[in-house]
Each structure stands twice: as structure tokens, then as C-alpha cells.
Amino acid sequence: MASISLHNLNKVYGDRFHAIHDLSFDIADGEFMVLVGPSGCGKSTALRMIAGLESITGGELRIGERIVNDVDPKDRDIAMVFQSYALYPHKTVRENIAFPLLMAKVDKAETERRVAEAARILQLEPHLDRKPGHLSGGQRQRVAMGRAIVRKPAAFLMDEPLSNLDAKLRVQMRAEIAALQRELKVTTVYVTHDQIEAMTMGDRVAVLKDGYLQQVDTPKNLYDRPANVFVGAFIGSPSMNLYEATLDGDSLTLGNQTLALSENLWKTRPSLRGSRNHPVIVGIRPEDMEDASLSGLTTTLDIPVTLVESLGAEVLVHLAVDAPFVDAGDPDAIVAEGSTNRAVGRFSPKSQVKTGDRARVAIDTEQLHFFDPKTRESLW
Predict the structure, then answer these.
(1) Are the beta carbons of 11 and 56 closer than 8 angstroms?
(2) What is the DSSP track for 100-147?
């Protein structure tokens, strides 16, 4: 196992496209680090630079104590798992898993021992003599994982390994990969565009946008204290509701309505005091909005309901908020025409609100997020 350190990494292509800008963070020995962000943010490029599949234009990359900027991929002691399983269709599962050991000229007895161990860990023992064409997508992904495991590398690098699986199998496989990584305690760098995948799997998560690192932190801290508007909106599903607002004294003016703010809010967020009587961007997470008739909260807004989606354990209520909507800058986000002032609340399934109602919505003001409208950075 080994730590991985990125210090001011840059990647500029021949057409002068600057894909990665001064990327810096450390990955501890045995840590599961997830790189997440929208399409084209640079996460796969960063992973390929760690692997040695992309050259480094500037900065320094260390694996363990060794600077590896100019070290060949085969000499970096890493194993990659790709989006495509890249299995040999004419070889059995046993032969696919053993292939990297064959190339490394590992003796037969040790090869058999390692293949058997990987098959046991990945529950592939009944399938060792089958060909990949006779396996399910999840089983093929396990074979690809097994091929990486047998090498006993210093680090695993995984590039969207679950993106070819259906939704149900993705949930199962992400739990299996996370459990496997905890068992093996191998340093792992995992790339995904799925923020739910990132939040449920990573010890820490690095959020990228346009080749810039936005924030690197634990999933909980990313959710509770996002560094800026982009991270606030990108982390969480449904996304954070973002609006232009104004702090007027001890209250928040949102459109034509006012929310009273508690004294405790000002105490816990000292940076917010400097924005009194100034415009701000306010973020409200869906779970901090509730049907007022079912909530003990006293701060409420009167909002028209445009759509109700009952999901059994919860109800997603779409609301037309009378305030200017703020675009978080996610290029993958789709905002339907005419819905730029919409909000989504996560209501109890006991709620009786219906499409077309004017609902009384309770807001947990202690959980509001505030951002500077110029810098778009969080105000704490």
C-alpha cells in the first residue's frame, strides 16, 4: 500500500486546452478517495495522470515516497479497473484473473493461490471455468476486480467501473466495492460522475469543476459545509434550492416573503454578520422543507405547489418560489423551461398537499446555507 500526493498538477494538451489546473491534495495510505464532478471536469484526466496514461504538464506526483512523473505505468505499482471490463472473451474467469500474474512470470503455485483467494473474496468460485460471455454484468465487474486484486498493488485506480450496470446492480456493486476496499485496506482512487456513489463510498471526496478542485472533504462535511454554490448544489439529491435573497436585519427576504432568523444562526456563522442588509444567495436543502401541518417549526412560507411525486417513503413536492433562481453552474443539470423559480421539498408521506394547492411550507432556518453573490463562496 502507499499514499498518493498531487502537488500543483497541470495538464495542457497540444491544442492549448488546459484540462487540469494546479490540482493539489493528498490521499492517505489505505484511504478510499473519490473524484467526482460533471462531464468534462477533469476527473478521468486526473486519474489517468496518476496511472501514467496521461503525461503531466506541470507539478509533482508522488506514489509513496517516489516521484513518478516520468515513471512508466507498469512500474507505478497500481492496478486499474475501467468502465469497460476489458476481459478476454476466449479465456475463462480463472485465466482472466490470472493473466497479470502470467505476464509477471509469477510461479504456478503462487498464481493458483492468489486466484483462489481473489475468487473467494469476490464470490466467483462457482464461475472460475466459465467464459465472460456467460456472466452477468456484475459478475464480469467482479472478474475485472479480481484481476486487479491478484496483483496486490500499492493502489487501485477505478474509472467509472459501475456505469455500464443497471441502477439496482449499481447499488449492490458499490456496496461490495466499498466493503472489499475496507477488507483489503488498499489505497483507492475512484472516479464517478454520480454524487450519490461518491457520498456512499468515499472516505473523502474531491469535487472538480472545469479542471479546478472545488473542495476535498468527508462526505458529511461536503454536505453540511459546502465551500461554494457549485458544491452545495452538486452534492445532495434532489439538489439544493438556490435563490437570490437579502438579509434585512435579523430576517431574510425571499421574493415577497420574509423568514425570521434566530440569534443562534448569527452566533454559529460569524461571517454572515458582515452581509447584514446586503444581497446573498440562500440555499435550502429539500429535507429542510416540510409540510407545516406536520412540522414543529414555526417559520413558514406560503408557496404554490406545481407537482407532487409520491415515492412511498417520502413525497417530493415541487414548489414555485417567488424569488430569482440561481444557476449553480453544473453543465449536466437540466432545468426545464419555465421552471427557473422552482424548489423541491422532501415531505413526509403523511402530507396531504396536492398539485395546484397553495401549501404552507415550514423551513428549518438553522440549516439554511448562505453564499456571497459575487464570489459564490459560503458564508460561515
Answers:
(1) yes
(2) HHHHTT--HHHHHHHHHHHHHHTT-GGGTTS-GGGS-HHHHHHHHHHH
- CATH architecture label of 4-233: 3-Layer(aba) Sandwich (3.40)
pLDDT (tens digit per residue) in 270-284: 888 888 889 999 999
For residue 342, the model assigns a pLDDT of 84
- More confident position, 294 or 173: 294
DSSP states of 38-98: STTSSHHHHHHHHHTSS--SEEEEEETTEE-TT--GGGS-EEEE-SS----TTS-HHHHHH
Residue 167's pLDDT is 85
C-alpha cell at 297: 417549526
State the pTM of this model: 0.92
- Domain assignments of the chain as residue spans, ordered by start: 4-233, 238-371
DSSP 345: E
Which amino acid, 189?
A: V
